[in-house]
Amino acid sequence: MSNSTAQVLMKKGKRGAAAYIHADCANGSPQHLGPLLDVLLNPSKAIDEWETIDWCRWLLAGGRTPDEFAAVVRSYDKHDKCGLVWIPRVVAYRCRTCGISPCMSICRECFYRGDHSTHDFNMFLSQAGGACDCGDNSVMKEDGFCSNHGNKCPRPGTAPAELMCVAEAMMPRLILRLLQHFRENGCGTPNSDGYRIAVQECEGYVQMLMEFNNMGDLMRSAMTKALINPQMYRNLVEPPFPDTEYGHYMGESNKMYEKAIESFPAPEPPDEYRHLPALAPRLQHNTLLDEFIFWTFKYEFPQNVVCFLLNMLPDQDYKEHLTRTFVMHYARIPLVLENSADPDTLSNRVVHMSVQLFSNEALALRCVQQLHLLHVMVLSLRLMMGKILVQNTLHDPAKNCHYVIDCTKRVMKEHCYWPLVSDFNNVLSHKSVALLFLQDDALVDMWFEFLSMLQGMNVNVRETGGHIEFEPSSYYAAFSCELEAAAYPMWSVLAHLCEPAHAPLAARLVAAAIRFLRAWLHAVRAPEKPRRACCTFNTFAAGPILAYFKLSETMHASFHFPLHRYLAAFLCAGVRALGVSAASLLPARPLLAQLAAHPLRVQSLFYEILAGVWVRNGLQIKGQAMTYIQANFCNSMVDMDIYWLQICAAHLPPDQFLDMCIDTFGVREWLSMTPMSTVQSAEQDAMVEGLLTFLAILVSSRTNLGNDELTQSRLEVSTLLAAGDKTHSQLLELMPERSGNAHTRNFETVLKEVSVYRAPPRGSESLEQGLFVPREAVWRSYYEPLHVLRRAVHRRDFHASMDRYAAYVREKQKSENGGPLANINTNALWPPLRPAKAPPEAAGDPRALCDSGVLHGALLAVLHRGVRRRDGGGGAAPPDHVLALAVFLLHTAAQRAAEAHAADRADAREVCVAGGEGGARGGRVSGAPLLRALCGGGILHSARTLVASVAPLHAAERAHRPPARPQQQHSDSDTEWEPSESEQTRLPPPTKSVSLPATSTALAVPQSLEMVRGNSVSDDQSDTGGDTPEMRALESGSSDMQALVVQTLQALPHLDTDTDAEGDVDNQMTLAIPDHLDPDTPPVAIDYDIVTEMEVQEWAVRAGRATPPALPAPPDLAPAPAARADDTQMELHTQSDEQIPVNESIISLLLKLHSQLSGRLDSFSLEEPAPELDEPIGDGPLFIGALLRQLAALDARCAASVRALRRALWPHQRERQAEQRARERREKEERSRRARERQQQVMREFARRQQQFLSAIQSMEGDADAMDWEEEPLERDYDCVICNTTAPTTAADPIGLVVLLQSTSVLGHRRRAGSGVPRLPLAEAERARLAAQQDATAAAHHYRLHDDLAQNFDQESWVLSVSVGWEGGVAAQSCGHHLHLRCLRAYLRSLAAPQRPHNLHVERGEFLCPVCRQLANSALPLAPRPPPARPPPPAHHYDAAAAVLDMLQREQPTPTPSRLSEAMGKAMEDMTGTAGSKLKQRYGSSPAAIFTFVASLARTNLECELVQRGGRLLSCPPPRYKPRDDCIVPLLAVAGAHGRALAAAGAQLGVAATWRALVPGAAAAAAAGGTEGGSAALAAAGGRARPVPLLLRDPAALLMHFLLLAPAHPPHLDIQYFTCIVKALYALTYYQIVNQLCANGVFSAVLEAGASGDAAADDDAGGLLDAAKLLMTSLAGSHLLDDDGLSDSSERITDIAKIEAQVQELALGYLRIAALVRRHVYGAELPEVEAPQLEFSALLRYLELAPGGSDALTAASALPPGAAPAARAWARQLAASVNGGQLATRRVVRSLHASWAGPWLLALPRDYDRVFTHYHERVCLQCGAVPKEASVCLLCGTLVCLKQPCCRHHQVAEAVQHAVECGGGTGIFLVVTSTYIIVIRGRRACLWGSLYLDDYDEEDRDLKRGKPLYLSQDRAELLQAQWLAHRFDHTKRTWVWHRDSL
Question: Among 477, 418, 489, which residue's Cα sits nearest to residue 451?
């Protein structure tokens, strides 16, 4: 029944059946639609059957045509939202001014219909697809809506109810059919290929549904109702099913569906989250949309299905339902990503869909509240990453139970997690959602559990043996994961914490971070207290130190600690914006110290990598260090680490923190002045620099510790500009990035403040871009060298910034001219380290580090080594940068003391004691370890304390461990000393010790009275240079005073000590101290300040927990007695050879360093006035002097110490210096006086000799007329650039000119003058106009001319009558260097070796000039200049013509074989091979064709030079590339040799006959002189049957023929004969032009006027009119000059002056070529022509065709004698040649001469958007497809498919083939999608650059920034000039072999 009903309906036809069904549905009870759809949508048929789809379209139309129905439905569209969905690689726009969500995007049509011209927008090429948000006020502001969407469009009327009745009835079945197809193909083995095939099968069906959807709101509403109706879904798919064939199918389909559901489970969630609906183990589908989304997930988000679903998003109910359904399936996304064969494409499609759903804040908030979206996202991410965990190896693996992500897995390498993280960031960008996230403790804990998986991932294990064999590439996956999965969500949340009310949320996050960090420390078994272990760096330290890492653990390091960075970030937010005190949130000090250990290790790792310690780990480890501080990562990584360490430094005891830093950086030995080997010392030198840099940054950085956003932006931009001038985009890219655009919010404002824009210079060929240059304020106020170091990915950036800073100082010195900067050495400037600002009180002050005595001792060690090593004490002195850092830290400590004094604080007791009792003596310390020697006092006490000697580090170590056997020494390129594993395990545990007060001077000693140190370190390379024998420490003392008695033991006999190292130490500055401070004197009391009991225990004990002591002591050692209120003493009984002598204080070292850097003794004095500087500009002496003055100003005892030390070091030095200066001043004055006297004597002698010379010249002038000067031309010598010899060229050993031969079609692209500038077509009308212009090019003109000649005349004759090479000719260019051809052959053989250069085609003769390295491929041999012949006496024109005829008639001798002739043959082979194949195919290989080609070589190069000069020989303006004149004469010589060889071989070239016909009088003169000729003057040239008449031959071509064949040694012809030839050919040119104008009807009006008596009777008119009458009379019977209405003359000319101007303009073509020949061959300089109208007359005089003196010359005035009779003979010859070819001959006559405009590339529009819009989706005419990289030829406007296989021809890609056909091997293409110009030159190609720049004159390659681009006129002119001058090969250096694939 059903089938029969359907059959009846189908017989009605589609339209009739549709009308019937529409009527049935309109009645409200459709009975016949179901049966019809059962037949049409039968599942047994293919879903994409065209007939079925067409039936559906017609049925939906309800009796109308589908197009009519679509138009009616669209007329009722409300246009509320655009909703256009696009796929990847579609152009869209993003306006940040209008956008509310950062993901906002709009389509091209909406963008241009809206007003965004003044907004911050960009165009972009979509990577993942998207949808237009125009009209959606939740995503963008209504002001940005276009005129068609939102409230701006008119509202339509109400649609009739019956319009959509069929659609509403059909739509459920249509959608069900698609689901049935998915069910059928979804039960097999799941794989991406199977899914892709199934989706392709339904492509047509989905496209039909998309067409329906695009009809507008009405159809979209019908579809969404069907999709989200639960009852409709139950009716369609739920059982029971009828007992029919369709019912049985539905039963099977339901089973397939159930099977698919079972095979797609959700991941196993934790028990506490199993109740969440989105994490249910089985999916429940209630609507068609639910199941549709399921299949979308199952089939890996097919592009067409995603677009179909997103197209309906303008329906709000549908959008909400889709979002909820998407969330319910969200937990399955990780499974889909893990199983996909192409996770990258799948990720884009997932984000394409999710970003449209989650960008709406209200909708996202509802999903979070009702469906627990955040829980689902975090759990999905956790479960995905939980599958790739591995054990963490950061600490001892045997005890470590922490697991981290394995970065080598596919999930990490292919970023499978990216869609989840992207969605999470998108949701957290909504403030309401972010606050909910922070308020949910369980959610925060879950997120921190995920972060724990990243904590310590990608552990690097240091290679200590050989170099790593395989460098892992997984490190960037780890950095990307931390940035995207940890940092971006962190910044998204922090962006919303901006109110004080949010302080509890920040505190909650800080507490959670601390809690999870404590758990993490427990999991990795990190020690709760520091161990006593060897140094963490290279095991350098041998003493007992505080460390949180075992020796083996120091070989393992990671950059990834997101938990620490979360703690730092939220603590920073709380302190900066929310008013929270850091101390209130921090943990107890022991835990705080633990939390500081790992970030501190990251800093030491960074500097270890820079120091080369990890060099064996390959380049990847350096890549990690660079990535760590790179712009995208630094805000989230290094800045957070530095901030956290600043907090720790401010809240931990300074000595404790400094000990941690020294041990972590592994420089305790260096800072303790312990002897070390050379390798140890060199490595620790670098690490000391790293430590000081780190400490200086820690103390001074205010990035997160005080700087507001504007200040930080100013600092960042200044830092970037300091390293170098940068473009706008470079500055934007290098600005440290946070999530979103916060880092660029103040960018433009700051950029204008600190920089000046510098536009690229005009005329440069380096394609420079617009740069921003720092203003003076940057160097004066904002330049921070430490911040440059912190941001410098490459160390050269820091050095570049210092060089630029030095240049600024030099300019400042010049401008001030003798100011306070005059004495500063700009070659030794120190970095301008600005004083550290006080941070906010709530955060704490990290500058407290500078109060540490440990730091003071370390800085004393740095200064000591600086002084000693500069004095030659061994080893390289620390660089100035290190000394500057040390002085800066001391200055900061003094600044702290000054602040304390100013605030009158209680701890400022020592400041400024007037005339203190100690005076200059200060304190004295002897025998203590250096890093403990200055503990207990502030900087003022430490600065004046004398350290007489220090205990080496190994002596202190012996106090804490029993004797051990000497360690094994392992040596390799990175020498290390490490105890073996067995020895480490045998070491007993350290002795329990108690702490001493930090200010105590007592030293800790062991219980045993003596301990012998093993001889493990050689001392011959020590810094002290003294003997360090094996020592034994003995304890001695009493109960009331603790002292260490050190006695010297006899040196063991086997020790080899260096006795010379310390030999002359008394003569050095090191021991220059007062006598009463001699180290051998008895102990003296040391003045110490009183320290209270509370201060003693301040950092040692906090909350009942002991902190590691700074200086441990044995347990049975009694505490030191209480110090007296007025004095604290320490006596150290020492003997010098048991200690390391120092005998210095900080002040003494500063004085000596000042002297060394100044280069003079006693260079500093407090009495001298300090330089008044408002900037920290200076060299070392200036900064050191400022520090000394500051210390002296703060404490009178320091001032007294400075004076006393000066007196002891340099007694009476100032007096001696003053006396020396006075003596030098007197000597200088005496030398100046003597020099003036000598100068006066020399000038008198010079005047006398000049007078003698003038007298001699005057006496010789009288005899000058009688002298006969014989000027013999000197043979020129050439320098061979290979063998460096100088010699003339000879036939046996010729010298060649280095040349580059290249095929050219530049001349063929000249266009007729007045035809207009060719433009790139942007419309069809413009394309037609360009086609007409292409038909008027020189190449097209000559091809038509040659075709017409070929029709009427002999092949040999017409080929000899023209020039070739307009397309595919050969252009020769030279760099001007010469070489022996034998040397060149040897050079080429060397290049042909196996290690040949990859960029040269040596087989084709390519090489680089050995001098200038320009590309060359041949050498033009230089022929020896012929012996000079006596010039003939001036002769009559006919006599000279007869002589020329005689030259042409004589037989050419057979060339004599020689190396020169071989070289000329080779050069001609090279030129023939370079010529285009089109040239060879068109003209053949006959002797005449060969000679024409040879003669055209010179013509082509002369024409190219003329083009390069602008087409005219004017003196201005000069061309951009000055033509070189090296090649023309050698080229003429080679061409002449081959022409003469052809003539000698018997080739009938007919040159003599042509000359006889050209100058009939020459034949008569030759006959009178006995030469054969006479009556044969008018005979046909060469006796050919159909020769080309002279009036149709090219005069310039004939000039080349005569110049090559007339002289015996071409081109060296006497200038009289050359002038004769030029005159004769000028006459031919003149009459050819007059004949052409007559044929074109130009003279008709003038002649008519003359006949009526109205013509002017001047001479000019007479000459022209006579010539015209002569030709018209002679050609009267040939009908060649008849007016047939086809002439080029568009108007009748009656003014003879205008005709004269036309004649002159057409004759200039020949005159210019002749003038260039004269210039090159005879060396005569071209005339200076200032105006175009003067060029004709100037060239006539230059060529000696007309007498000089008259400014204005007519064309007829330059005719030679006998021109008229000759012209009459030429006309008769032309008339006689017209036999059946009248039309072709007439076309030749009318177009023989033309005035050409220079060749031009197509003019481009100013706005690039016009080019992009027209060509981006334009179809290729060859393949019919839209090219992926559409490229337009700028010579002809052809669109080609670049790099695509579709348009290949004979395996040659389209662009390469087009370059050969259009440009003679040179192609210039504009790649539309990237804005770049690609130049193809032969077999090479290069990226030339972009012609379009943005507002900042900057390129936008691949349109990545999408800013508006505008044509750079300067670059367009440069490209044009390089094309015209054939300079691409010489100006570009980035050529690649294109291998015919472009």
Answer: 489
**What is the Cα gyration radius of the chain?**
47
Q: What angle do CA 39, 45, 46 make, to 5 degrees?
A: 135
Q: Which residue, 706, 707, 719, is CA-closest to 786?
A: 719
Identity of the residue numbered 775: R
Q: pLDDT tens digits, residue range 1825-1842? A: 888 888 999 999 999 988
Opening angle at CA 888, ends 887 and 892, nearest 5: 115
End-to-end CA distance of the chain: 64
C-alpha dihedral sign at 752, 756, 762, 765: negative
Placement of tokens 């004055």 in the chain? 1229
Residue-wise pLDDT for 276-289, tens only, equals 888 888 888 999 99
Q: Return d(Cα 1796, Cα 1925) in angstroms, integer.
A: 18
And the tokens for 1607? 């002289």
Q: Which long-range contacts (CB under 8 A, 24 or more apart) does 502-507 make?
A: 502/435, 502/438, 502/578, 503/574, 503/578, 503/579, 503/580, 505/435, 505/438, 505/439, 506/570, 506/571, 506/573, 506/574, 506/578, 506/580, 507/574, 507/580, 507/585
Are 1183 and 830 within 8 A, CB to CB?
A: yes
**E strands of 680-832, at which residues?**
755-758, 771-774
Residue where the block lists tokens 């922070």: 438
Q: Is the pTM of this model over 0.90?
A: no
Which among 1090, 1095, 1162, 1093 has a CA at the least distance from the CA of 1128?
1090
pLDDT tops 50 at residue 352: yes
The amino acid sitting at 825 is N
What are the CA-CA distances from residue 1497 to residues 1424, 1531, 1715 (Å)?
21, 8, 17
d(CA 1216, CA 1233): 26
- Written as six digits, the tokens of 1339 are 């190449």
Return the DSSP state at 124: E
Nearest-CA neighbor of 663 among 525, 542, 521?
542
Tokens of 1205: 């030390």
Give kind and range of the element (H or E) at residue 93. Answer: strand 91-95
| Residue listed under structure tokens 């078994």 | 525
The sign of the torsion formed by the CA atoms of 751, 752, 753, 759 equals positive
Tens of pLDDT, residue by residue over 444-465, are 999 999 999 999 999 999 988 8
- Structure confidence at residue 1129 as a pLDDT band (50, 70, 90): very low
Per-position DSSP letters for 1630-1667, written without gaps between them: HHHHHHHHHHTTSSHHHHHHHHTT-S--SHHHHHHHHH
User: DSSP characters for 498-565?
Assistant: -SGGGHHHHHHHHHHHHHHHHHHHHHTT--SS-EEES-TTTT---S-EEESS-TGGGGEE-S--HHHH
Find tokens 């009702």 and name the residue: 370
Pairing of strands 924-928, 946-950: parallel
Distances (CA, A) of 263 to 346, 384, 385: 20, 18, 22
The percent of residues above 90 in pLDDT, for the chain, comes to 41
DSSP 612: T
Burial (Cβ within 10 Å: 0-12, 13-18, ≥19) of residue 1431: exposed
List, in order, residues 6 or more apart from 997 with CB less than 8 Å away: 936, 1091, 1096, 1097, 1100, 1120
Q: Which one-letter amino acid corresponds to residue 228?
A: I
E strand map for 577-704: none
Q: Which of 1556, 1492, 1586 is nearest to 1784 (CA)?
A: 1586
In three-state secondary structure terms, 1584 is: coil
* Statement: residue 1749 has pLDDT above 70: no
Burial code of 362-372, b = ≥16 C-beta within 10 A, e = fewer? Answer: ebbbbbbeebb
Instruction: Answer for the pair 963, 1014: CB distance below 8 angstroms, yes or no.
Output: yes
Cβ-based neighbours of 1662, under 8 Å, separated by 6 or more: none
One-letter amino acid at 1004 equals: A
